[in-house]
Specification:
The complex is a heterodimer of chains A (about 150) and B (about 180). Chain A is mostly helical and about 150 residues long. Chain A has helices at about 1-5, 10-40, 45-55, 75-90, 95-105, 120-150. The chains are: A mainly alpha (about 150), B alpha/beta (about 180).
């Protein structure tokens, strides 16, 4: 037992395990990436980028907290396929989004466009934060000047 | 002044929250917006489930009709078949079916088991027709005018209550 314990350097042992883990992880991600590319092959990298970008902007209407890129729902697959075919037809992002909005409403986009019916959605968090922060700052200075006057 | 400030900020936040609540609760911001309602039925050309001519969007012209999206793997779809059969036999409104991403053998068995209310059935093998129609799942039913305009898109199981209180009154309104 003692003879074997002396022959293993703990640091090298741990480094070895860590490197194997990193290599396996890299291999896994390469395989995952390769399989996604094989399912939706494009002739140009710009189309691949367009597809990857759009599928991350479109909501899965079944699993609504996921994008169609992530969701395994049947309809998400159909939406991915539709986006893929529209990109092959050289449709722009705007044309594809318009097509989807016409059918599913603006809710299908994870980031709805900014206009009259969505301005509260966009501005409310910022306004609430600015107001609260302003109140805290003013309170701080008022309290400080009150203490100084005393 | 220091006593008034908290109230001012509170009132401002209250005003903002009220505006947000109004938008959420009272404005028509339902998630499932009208979608294709009011628009022409998109072009449909689907292989017939049986050995008959394909289902085309042109089939739904000339008379008000229903377009029902279903599948044999859909439990809920079997529950609405009795109502669809009543619509077909008593109300004489043609019902066209789109069999969504289904196995044709299973679909035919399913129709034999539950009954076939459909005038014609097209097979949507890859889900493209479903996306064109803006469907979320199955079952869903569209009311199509005689000119091929989508009058209404109902999502979910079509039961007696939905038919008598929602869809049939809409059809009567349109035909009058």
């Amino acid at each position: 037992m003692g003879k074997f314990a002396l022959s293993i350097n703990p640091t090298i042992y741990i480094m070895n395990i860590f490197l194997r883990f990193v290599l396996i992880t890299m291999l896994f991600f390469n395989l995952a990436h390769a399989s996604a590319e094989n399912l939706y092959p494009f002739t140009s990298s710009s189309q691949t980028e367009q597809f990857n970008s759009l599928t991350k902007q479109v909501r899965c209407v079944v699993c609504q907290n996921q994008t169609v890129a992530d969701s395994n729902a049947l309809l998400a697959t159909d939406l991915r396929n539709k986006i893929y075919h529209m990109i092959l037809e050289n449709k722009s992002d705007a044309e594809i989004k318009d097509y989807l909005i016409n059918r599913y409403g603006e809710f299908i986009l994870l980031q709805p466009p900014f206009h009259q019916s969505t301005f509260i959605l966009w501005l409310f968090p910022w306004l609430a934060m600015v107001l609260t922060f302003s109140w805290l700052v003013i309170r701080f200075y008022v309290n400080r000047s009150t203490k100084n006057n005393k | 002044m220091s006593r008034v400030q908290p109230f001012i900020f509170f009132l401002l936040l209250l005003a903002l929250s009220s505006l947000a609540a109004y938008q959420i609760l009272f404005k028509n911001t339902e998630k499932t917006e009208p979608g294709m309602v009011g628009l022409q039925l998109p072009k449909i050309e689907l292989t017939n489930l049986f050995d008959e001519p394909p289902l085309s969007d042109q089939d739904l012209r000339g008379k008000i009709s229903l377009l029902n999206i279903w599948a044999s793997w859909c439990e809920t779809c079997s529950l609405e078949i009795p109502v669809l059969l009543v619509i077909k036999e008593l109300y004489h409104i043609p019902i066209y079916g789109i069999d969504y991403k289904d196995n044709p053998t299973q679909a035919k068995k399913w129709l034999k088991k539950y009954g076939n209310p459909y005038t014609k059935i097209g097979r949507d093998k890859d889900g493209e027709a479903a996306i064109d129609l803006g469907i979320y799942g199955t079952p869903e039913t569209f009311i199509i005018s005689s000119e091929g305009i989508i009058l209404y898109h109902y999502k979910g199981m079509l039961d007696e209550n939905v038919w008598e209180n929602l869809l049939y009154p809409l059809i009567q309104q349109y035909t009058s």
